[in-house]
Amino acid sequence: MEDFNAWLSFPIHESVNHDLAIRRFCPARLEQEQGGGEWEETLSEIEFCSPSNDSTTTPCLPASEVDEFVDSIINMDHCKDVNDDNHQSLEKQQSSFDYFQDGMQTFSMEDDLYGDVMMMMDGDDQMEMCGTVEDFGVLDDQTSMVHSVEEVSHGVDQGLHLVHMLLACAEAVACRDTRLAESLLTQIWASVSPFGDSLQRVSYCFAMGLKSRLSLLQNVNLNGTFNNDTMDVSMIAREEKLEAFQLLYQTTPYIAFGFMVANEAICQAVQGNERLHIIDLGMDHTLQWPSLLRTLASRPEGPPKKLRITGLVEDDNVFELEAGMRVLVEEASSLGIPMEFNMISEPVKPSLLTIENLDLREGEALCVNSIMHLHKYVRESRGSLKAILQALKKLSPSVLTLVEQDANHNGPFFLGRFLESLHFYSAIFDSLEVSLPRNSPQRTKIERLHFADEIRNIVAFEGLNRVERHERADQWRRQLGRAGFQVMGLKCTSQARMMLSVYGCDGYSLASEKGCLLLGWKGRPIMLAAAWQVNNASSS
Asked: Distance between alpha carbon 347 and the CA centroid of its chain, in Å?
């Protein structure tokens, strides 16, 4: 960690020439810029499919902010802690990236015009939009050749060079220059390690994602779309995923924070009700519910007379989940709470979300719980998510709890998603560096079985197989508001702050923004948690 911090603190502008040669070593890029061959046709298609308004064009970061952008990816130590009173400083600390991010919001969930265009296409991978590193403001027009790893000194230079190589490789992949991308990837493998410092570890995961995307590029269909069927969406077994998720829950506050806020919101919304029914979207485990049972059992008005939990499961292999629920039912009984568990093994669709299918009963307070699941229904067209939210509203739940990653990993430009996700996961891996030693087997499992799988999905896949479509808090507010929900004020900020203090690490930060609680690492928001209720004043 000392070596890592040593090169992080080194003045960036004195170490590496940031004017990396993308154009010079990317023949396809040269042809694209000169307007020749099929690249000219591709650019024409992009121009036709994109709104003509200037506000929707690919934004560029000013050249003067290049150093700050690269530093924001690899240097987390300059950020300050955030609380409710200084949330604006959190936004300033990541302003270099948010300049790019804000411009890309036009292509995200909020852009109805772009969504309509995408809906007219056969799929969201019908055309891979090839933005460039310079288009996204990472590099300047002055260019020079990429040096080999051997020519770059250790410390700061090596770390910066690694980031630049990742960006250059990502652009080569975006331009479908497989020969160049494979060459750069060979150099990257020499600098990354799943057992090194946080930058080497996160870079290893992104290199694996780029490798998977290159494999898919070898099987591009005749119409230019990805043939996702040639590769498994996830190479991690379900048991391994659950183990890594449980380790993440035990060693960091990211998951525990979401559980705590969701449970407190449920108790707040059903106060005084004697019969409760919780619909758990995409249920994978039972980790969330023991603490809820204890809270319900200690209510001033007494425990509920009946608690039902219905898990909507999209995996047929549910034996372990059923065993966990049996243990939970016994624990509830010992606390004086009669509990009933039901499981529906079907994909979450609007047709499933009905009173009859979910066996909703009169007199029950209904709660809908979504822990990092609703983003799987986000598409560029947004039709799937909109239909599900509208179906949930018709059920008139007392509360809808939402816990999600606070990041924009759903833009249509591959390079934009790559940059945002690299920034996001670099912060997470930096927090793991502080929390767990490098030789920790728990840390290795968390990184390689949980986060690496998410990164691979964001980087490698397109179309229906790209399910890790995380969105920012503003986007969720907009979508839920349009569906007829309004944010419910949370009363658990002090509990959340107390929970963070247990981890004994100064890097975690907590902020409240328009009804949402945001958990961050050194100024970078990581998780959002919020509760929503039906807005009776809105139209159905």
From this structure: 21
Sign of CA dihedral 463, 467, 470, 471: positive
HSE-CB at 188 with a 13 A cutoff on CA atoms is 29
pLDDT value at residue 314? 82
Q: What are phi and psi of 403, to 5 degrees?
A: -125, 125
In Å, how far from its chain's centre is CA 242? 18
Q: Which residues pair with 339 in a beta bridge?
A: 307
Handedness of CA 264, 270, 273, 279 (dihedral sign): negative
CA dihedral 117, 120, 123, 125 (to 10 degrees): -30
Is 172:207 a contact under the CB 8 Å cutoff? no
Q: How far lies 292's CA from each of 258, 289, 331, 515, 537, in Å?
A: 12, 5, 11, 22, 31
Report residue 125: phi and psi, to 5°.
-115, 20
The residues with which 368 forms a beta bridge, in sequence order, are 279, 400
Q: In sequence order, what are the beta bridge partners of 521?
A: 508, 524
Q: Are strands 365-371 and 485-487 parallel, antiparallel or unpaired?
A: unpaired
pLDDT in tens, 425-464: 999 999 999 999 999 999 999 999 999 999 999 999 988 8
Tally of CA atoms within 13 A in the half-sphere of 116 that contains its CB: 3
Residue 488's region, left for phi above 0, alpha for psi from -120 to 50, else beta, is beta
Residue 455 one-letter amino acid: I
Interatomic CA distance for residues 90 and 94, integer angstroms: 7
Please state, in angstroms and rounded to a whole number, the distance separating the CA atoms of residues 250 and 539.
43
User: Using one digit for the tens of pLDDT, what is the confidence trace for 272-331?
Assistant: 999 999 999 999 999 999 999 999 999 999 999 999 999 999 877 678 889 999 999 999
pLDDT per residue as tens digits for the range 236-285: 888 899 999 999 999 999 999 999 999 999 999 999 999 999 999 999 99
d(CA 476, CA 528): 10
Which segments of 350-441 are extended strands (E)? 365-371, 399-405
d(CA 212, CA 201) in angstroms, rounded, equals 17
Going by pLDDT thresholds of 50, 70 and 90, the confidence category of residue 90 is: very low
DSSP helix/strand/coil, 135: coil
Sequence-distant (≥ 6) Cβ neighbours of residue 424 within 8 angstroms: 405, 407, 409, 524, 526
Determine which of 28-32, 54-58, 506-510 has the lowest per-residue pLDDT on average. 54-58
The per-residue pLDDT for 21 is: 33
